[in-house]
Structure formats: C-alpha cells, structure tokens
From TrEMBL:
Pfam families: Usp (PF00582). The lineage of its organism: Bacteria, Pseudomonadati, Pseudomonadota, Gammaproteobacteria, Oceanospirillales. It comes from Marinospirillum celere. Residues 176-255 form the UspA domain. InterPro entries: Rossmann-like_a/b/a_fold (IPR014729), Universal_stress_UspA (IPR006015), UspA (IPR006016). This is Universal stress protein family protein. Belongs to the universal stress protein A family.
C-alpha cells in the first residue's frame, strides 16, 4: 500500500492536471497523504518556493480528501534530496510528473527521472495523464525473472484494491531452463486466481507491454527493475526505459530490494 507519497514537482505546476492524475491512482494504491517537494540549486529561492508549495498542498488536500498534505522546498541534487526526504518522512514511494507534451520532457527523462529510476531504493511512480476514463485496472509486466519478484509481490498486495488485475508476460530471447521455469512458476502462482487475467505477448517486449496496457486501459502498469550496482542499473535503460518513453499511462517502477 502507498499511504504516503513524496511528489517531486517542477514549475510551472499544473495543479488541476496533477489532481486529475493522482485521483485516478488514489483508490488503486490506498493513498492517504502526500508531500509536495521541489529541489532547487539556489538556497535563496527556498522561502518563495516553500510558500508556493504550501498553497498547492492545501488545495490538493481539500480536493482529494486526503488525511494530510504538506510541502518541502529543498536545495541540492534532486535524486539525493528526494530519496532522503522519502526516508525521513517514512513514505512508501516517490512520484514524478511525467508529461510527454512538455518542452523539457526529453531533458527530464534523460536526467532526473532516469537518475531516480536507476538509483532509488524506493518505489517510483511516473505520473502520466490518462487517455481514458479510470477503469480501476492494474497491470503487472513480468518476465518471471528474479528482478521481477518484488514487482510481483507488490502487485499481489495492490490487487485487492483493483477492479481488474492483469499480468502481461513477454518471453525474452533466453532459452535457459531456469528462465522457462521462472515463467511457468509465475503463471502457476497467479493462474489459479480467478481475479487475475494472464496475458501473453510476442515480439519486442516494450511495444507489446505498451500495446497491452492501452488495449486493457490499465490505470497503472507495474514494472520491476534491476539491481543497484552500475552494470545492473544500465538494464533499466532497455525495456523499462523504452516503455516509459512510449507509454501515456502511470507507471510504477519497483526496485528489487522490496522483495528481500
């Protein structure tokens, strides 16, 4: 469950759009509290930014009916400060606004967002504006690998909150017996659950997953990511990064540490 999220925002902040996006996820993840955060490189800007964030937090709390909403203006490097704030607040995850129409989209994707995805040990939401009305649908993309175990575990926890729950499995090019056994175990774990629909995809994994999430109108797509060492971090830059570049739906990246 994600009762408390840290939301990293930039300016200009599209308050109405954000409220619309987070309202879709609110019942699906059990959200009760959020903290708006903005990180600046100039400490002198903090008082002005804090005042602006406080105004937004007050409005958002009322419109979403949250138990609590506060704000924090920070100075430093975004990735480090957002991770520290999440730990300090004992929040369950971090959310970043992720709008494809933004002029800074490519820059943001290549810097803050990917840095966060590669380094954070906290679940990371990429918020996208939904192209469809909320369906209450939750989708997990998994290849049955060890790296996906934490995502599978979180999917099982959130599943009772969803109106529909689905798993999309796209086989990789690997033919090792261990990989095939992992895929079969994944299917066996959830296939007996009548509330979970098992889907299979073919071809390019990123394209197949994006297409499935669109056709099923998923409100949230859950992905696992690789480990923390530099070589494994680069693995995020393949399938998961391609999905984030192509998709126009909220995505949740789950680090493997949550499965420990």
């Amino acid at each position: 469950m994600f009762k408390h999220l840290i939301v990293g925002i930039d300016f200009p902040f599209e308050e109405d759009t954000f409220i619309e996006e987070i309202a879709t996820l609110q019942p699906l993840i059990g959200l009760e509290e959020l903290t708006l955060a903005h990180v600046t490189l100039n400490p002198n800007e903090i008082p002005e930014i804090q005042a602006e964030l406080d105004k937004h937090a007050s409005v958002i709390k009322g419109r979403l009916g949250l138990k609590a909403a506060d704000a924090q203006a920070l100075s430093g490097l975004p990735t480090e400060e957002l991770n520290r704030l999440t730990s300090r607040k004992d929040a369950q995850g971090i959310a970043l606004l992720f709008h494809h129409h933004s002029k800074t989209y490519e820059f943001f994707l290549g810097s803050v967002a990917l840095d966060m995805a590669r380094s954070t040990r906290h679940p990371l939401f990429f918020l996208n504006q939904q192209p469809d009305p909320s369906s209450g649908a939750l989708m997990l993309a998994s290849d049955g690998s060890l790296a996906a175990k934490a995502a599978e575990k979180l999917f099982a926890q959130l599943k009772p909150l969803a109106k529909k729950a689905m798993i999309i499995n796209v086989p990789s090019d690997k033919d090792e017996p261990e990989h095939q056994q992992a895929v079969q175990k994944l299917k066996a774990t959830f296939s007996e659950d009548a509330a979970v629909e098992i889907l299979s995809g073919e071809g390019d994994p990123a394209k197949a997953i994006v297409q499935a999430s669109n056709s099923k109108k998923a409100d949230l797509l859950i992905l696992g990511k690789r480990g923390q060492n530099p070589l494994k971090q680069l693995m995020f830059g393949s399938t998961a990064e391609q999905i984030c570049r192509q998709i126009h739906r909220p995505v949740l990246i789950v680090p493997p540490e949550l499965g420990d």
